[in-house]
Design brief:
Blueprint (H helix, E strand, L loop, with lengths): L1 H9 L5 H11 L12 E5 L16 E5 L3 H6 L11 H14 L7
Antiparallel strand pairs: 1-2
């Protein structure tokens, strides 16, 4: 019953909660920074742009809610989205892994 209310109130599919939970089970770290807490599921192509892709696993990426969802997923504006989120995330993750650290010269 609550799922029907949620669908009406938020415009989400009846199955969104189940798909989200399964995605986080399989992808349990931020795609950018590898954080494992405070995770969000981000739609690569937003639901308002293409509602048919809301439940499509290939349209989902895990991002941490602390920083990466806002910065990388929405380019620091919740009204926007990053069409290149996957490519940008991979590039930035590589930069994080290769960053210089004090004492490792």
């Amino acid at each position: 019953m609550f799922s029907l209310f949620r669908t009406f109130l938020y415009g989400r599919s009846y199955n969104w909660t189940k798909v989200r939970k399964e995605h986080l089970r399989k992808n349990n770290e931020c795609f950018v920074c590898r954080r494992q807490m405070d995770l969000d599921v981000h739609h690569i192509v937003p639901v308002h742009v293409d509602p048919s892709r809301e439940l499509d696993p290939s349209n989902l990426v895990t991002l941490c809610g602390k920083y990466c969802h806002f910065i990388f997923g929405h380019l620091m504006d919740w009204k926007s989205w990053n069409e290149n989120i996957v490519k940008d995330a991979i590039m930035f993750r590589e930069k994080i892994q290769a960053r210089p650290k004090k004492g490792e010269e």
